[in-house]
Each structure stands twice: as C-alpha cells, then as structure tokens.
Amino acid sequence: MSQHYPALLVIVPLLSALLISIVGWLNKRFCFPIAVAALSVSLYSSVGLLLRVMDEKVILYFLGGWDPPWGIAYSVDHLSALVLVVVSVVALLNLIATQKSVEQEFSEKIGAFYTLYLLLITGLLGIVVTGDAFNLYVLLEITALTGYGLIAMGEDRAPLASLNYVYMGTIGACFYLLGIGYLYISTGSLNMTNISSILPGLYDSKVVLAAFIICIVGVFLKMAFFPLHAWLPNAYTYAPSAVSSLVAPLMTKVMIYVMIRLMLTVFTPAFTFSNLALSNSVVWLAVIAISMGAVLALGARDMKKMLCYVVIAEVGYMVGGAWLGNRAGMTGAILHIANDALMTLCVFLAVGNIVYKVRGYAFEDLKGMFRKMPYTMTGLVAGALSMIGVPPTCGFFSKWYLISGGIQAGQYGFVAALVFSSLINAVLFFRIIEIGYYEPFGADHGHGSSPVRMAEAPLTMVVPLLIVAGGLVMMGVYTGDIITHIIEPIIPPAIGN
Amino acid sequence: MPDLITSIVDYYNYLIYVILMMIGLYAMIAKKNLVKKIVGMNIFQTAIILFYVSIGAKKGATIPIIQHGHGEGAHEIVPSVIEAAEYINPLPHVLMLTAIVVAVATLGVALALAIKVYNRYETLEEDEILAQIRET
Fold first, then answer.
1. Which of A432, A320, A426, A327 is nearest to A376 (CA)?
2. CB-based contact B102 A138, cutoff 8 Å
3. Which of A156, A166, A184 is opposite residue B109, by nearest beta carbon?
4. Do residues A255 and A222 lie in contact, with contact meaning Cβ atoms separated by under 8 Å?
5. Which domains are delineated in chain B?
6. Does a structural domain hold residue A409?
7. What does the pLDDT look like over A442-469, one tens digit per residue?
C-alpha cells in the first residue's frame, strides 16, 4: 500500500470529487463527510511520504508502469514532501473549520462547492508531486479553473474579480507552457530530472535562457509577484470566506514551490545564480514587492483586503529569499512556505469566523470583538504576532533566516525591506487589536458601553483556528528540527554560504 | 538583408505564433468589452497551441504510423531501422490535445463568469461596470 502513496494522494480527492458531485444531487449531508474522508487519506499519505523520504531521499512512482522519460513520473523528495504535508494539513483544517460558514453562505450549492474544493486540492497536490513539466501545466490549470469557480461564488463583485483573475492566470499558465515548449525543443524531454541531466551542455543556448525566463515570468504572474499582482487583492477579498482561507494560504505558496523546483531541479543552481545575472534584479523587485505590499496594506480600508496585500508582501519575502543565492536565504524561503501557509490560514480563519457572526469584515465590525469573540481574537492575535515576527511563533524564525541570508549576500535593501514590512505589519495588526479591544461595541449609538455578551463562533470553527494558532508556536519551537531533517537535504551543496 | 529574409523564411512559424500571441495580448489589454478580452485570451492560447503543433512538423515526413507495424508477420516487413526523420513528432500534437481541452474549459469558465457579470451590471463594457461600482 505504502508504495502507492504518491498516486493515492492525488487520485482519492479526484475520485471523491466526482462522487460528491453525484451524491450532492441525492443528499447534501453526505458531501462534507466524503470530503473529510478524502482529504484525510491525502494527509495520511503525505505524512507517510514525508516519513519515507527521510530514509529514502527520493521516491519515484511511475504512473501506469511506464518508465520516464516516456511515462509520467511522480517524484517526491524532501521539498515536495514538506509542501505536500503543508497543503494537505491546511486543506483539511480549513475544510473542517469552514463547514458552518459554507452552509450559511451557499446552502444550495454545497455539492458544487465541495466538488470544486476537492478538485482544487487535487490540482495543488498534483503540482507538488509530479515530476513531469507538462503534467505540471495541466494540474496548474486544474487548480486555476476550480479556483476561478470558487472565487466567483463570493459576494457581488466576485465574478468580475474572478474574470480578471482568469485573464491574468491564463496568461501566466500560457507563459509557463511556452517556456516548457522551448525546453522541449532544446532537450526533447518533459521529465524534470531528464531535462536537468540534458541541459548542462546547453546552458549557453539562447533558447534555454528564453525558456527559463518565460517560465519564471509565468510563475511570477501566478504567484502575484509585485508588478504582476493586480489580480490578487480583489479576487481574494470578494471570494467567500471559506475560499479565501483556502486559496490565500495555498495558491501563492505552491507557486513559490514551482519556482524553487524550476530553479533547483529543472535548472541547476549553477545556471540560476551564475549563468544568469538576474539574481540582483529579482531581489530588488522583491524589495519593491515587500515595500509596496506593506504600504498598500496600510491604505486598505477593510480587513480582508489588508490581509491580501500582506500576502503580496509575503510573496516578496519568499521570492527574494530564494533568489539571494545562499543557503540561509533559501532555507528561509522554504521554511517560510510552510510558516506563511499556516499563519495566513490562521488570520483568514479568524476573519472567516468574524464574517460568520457579524456578516462583515470592515474595521468597524471589529468593535468590541475581544469581548464578543475572545477565542477567535486569540487566534487572530497569534497569527498577527507570527506575521509581525515575534519570537516564539514561527514567523520570527523564517524571517531571521531571510534577514541573515540578506546580510550574507550583501543585499541590505532586502534586509531593510523585511524590517520595514515587519514594522508595518505591527502597525496594521495593532490597529486591529486596538479597535477590537478598546472601542466598545455599539458605542456610536449613544448608549455608552453597553455590556457586550459573548457570542463566539461555533466550536467546529473555533477549535481548528486554535489548533492552527497552537501550530504556529509549535512550528516555532521545532524550527531547528524541521531545518536539519527536512530543509537541509533540499538545498544542493552547490549553494554555498 | 538576405540573412534576415532567410531567417524569416526559415522560422516563419515562430513569427506567426508571436504575431498571433501579440494580437491576443493586445485585445486583452486594450479592449474594454469583456467578451472581446475573452476572445483575445483564446487567441493567445491558440497561438501557443499552433507553436507546439508547428515544432512537431517535419518537411517530407509522414504521420507516425509504422506500416504493417503489428499483427502477424510484423517483424518480416518492418525495416530493422526506423528513420526518425521520416515521421513527424507526434508528442507535441498529443500534448496540445490536452492544451486544447484546457483552453476550451478556460473559455467556458470565462464566458460563464461574463454572464454572471452581465446579469449583475447589465453591461459588458468594463468602463461602464467600473463607473457603476464607483457609484455604489
């Protein structure tokens, strides 16, 4: 059984999605349990894979028994195993946490919602597990198409925001496809390891150079890296809260994974950092991304949009860290994939709980929130502390690695941007805490500080949130172990200190 | 100058795909109508499909089916050496079957979204929709 984990991981959610779309017609109550069961299988397989990868280093799985480069191979190494666990944990926790809010927001379309939800997770897990460049494109589009559908289920402006996302997302995916076409012309292969073994002789070729740049630009578009970020804030803000808390932590992070996969596996670090004189410019773009994300977040007028701009700034952290070209920066970037997924999930779940109770996410809706929903706000504060980078939480450690990587590489602009963004995050989240704690609920009606009764979100929403909040601290405490056992083996020795 | 002309003649398929792609991109950026943007997006995708199809083609080559390649007596008739140059490369074409499916699905989703937008705002012109959003 355990040798089939890579296939199970993807196939179980895929088939369950089809099952849900049939069962949804008959009885809506069965949709949710099937989804939970499917994602539990995925989580079990990905944890199993992570444990196996620790011993075996690389697990190859040939679909249909066809050997690569002809057949499609799934390959799992430390990096993909880590991201697989992150994706399946976030997907499962979010599924459970948002059950009530899904019932509240679209009780008519539960079957459709869970079908799309599982297909999205199928796509994300597939992107991470696949070892075939073209297969990655197909799964990228599965993810994107279901994402468009899910986002469009949101409030009034959601369809328009989603349509803009369709335009940008399609251009991104097409660029990636074009880049893969160039790689195919020059190497005649689509298997990632096979490509990387053929490429070194062709590193001077202009076609390979164009392939790399086009692929990376496509991936930048998909991850909303700064000048190409315009689609993200509206799409993620107007999406239903159950969808925002799924796509915001996962989509951008998985795209960062694709970028690191391209940089380290398909192309070698020697090519990425030495043959190309791009590192400097990309790091500077990341500096602009981080600063602009922070400034735009400061100007946002509601909570969800503010968090979306924070997500854009965080994308800048990871891209910048990965392109610094040293071990500390790469460690920070990979660690931040996991940490950022968890902390984004944490804050978006908290916002989801608030939306569930007060039907709004404007700053005014937060008044008196600490008395009304103390547990939700505890979760929000934990996520906020992690985003600011306060020590026991995991956000501090990845930021620490990113900053020390920046200092080692002599990129002081990057270091300054990270510090600046942390300060802005502190301002942003303390503003929320101030409104929630000091401004009494309903004070503007002239009743003075009427006693606010506690009206917490249901237990199924609060418990997952608190688990994630606890997870932030646990990730922080065990950072050392995660780095020595999982992240150190990812980074090839070619990347020096 | 003769160099330029020969390179244009030799690589005309790449030129055509780039031109088509730019037409699509232009429509997506410059057109205000949402459906025109969607059409531009589809042209953009089709350009890349054509690019892939053209890289599989070879001059004077035939479809990649080996005659009498299976069944009884296959081994007697099939020449021991199969010249790759005699057959076009089928792989890019097969890949594009998938990409066409993806393009159709994207088109479907985009048009469905355009209908939702139209039902809400009663128009498909982007500037009119933005004006309506600004009023509220």
1. A432
2. yes
3. A166
4. yes
5. 2-59+85-135 (1.10.287.3510)
6. yes
7. 545 544 455 567 777 788 888 888 899 9
